[in-house]
Amino acid sequence: MDSEEERKYALEKLNSEEVQNFIDEHNISNLILFGSLNHGEFNEISDVDIALLNEEKISLDTILELELFLENLLNRPIDVVDLRSEKLDLFVKINILNNGKVLFSKDNNKMFDIICDEVDRTYRENENFMYFRRIDVLS
């Protein structure tokens, strides 16, 4: 299989009923695809990057279970992140929200819009701090 066929296969599997059932069983509001599979640089050694979103933080058990489920389904490494996690870098969140593709949404992207507003507000509140920190680091 060439890279484009692998990409199509992975997207087809991610949009499958199997994945939808997993999302439903674990009450996940949104599943967002980001990274190389989403923006066309996917190849035979690429992993698949998935962001999850819910009203509350998603448990580590659920994240690990989804990673294992998708690794078995796609036969490749999977990285799953929770957009509600405080440990996830703000700029990573911004990148996911700006460039990610929502594959599943139980709430017509309501949660996605809420997290976009929250991340935007956090960025604006800390914009000056980040600017001066960057200058400090570069000097």
TrEMBL record:
Pfam families with a match to the protein in the record: Polbeta
Domain Polymerase beta nucleotidyltransferase: 17-108
Xref: InterPro entries: NT_sf, Polbeta, TA_antitoxin_MntA
Superkingdom of the organism of origin: Bacteria
Protein name as catalogued: Polymerase beta nucleotidyltransferase domain-containing protein
Source species: Clostridium manihotivorum
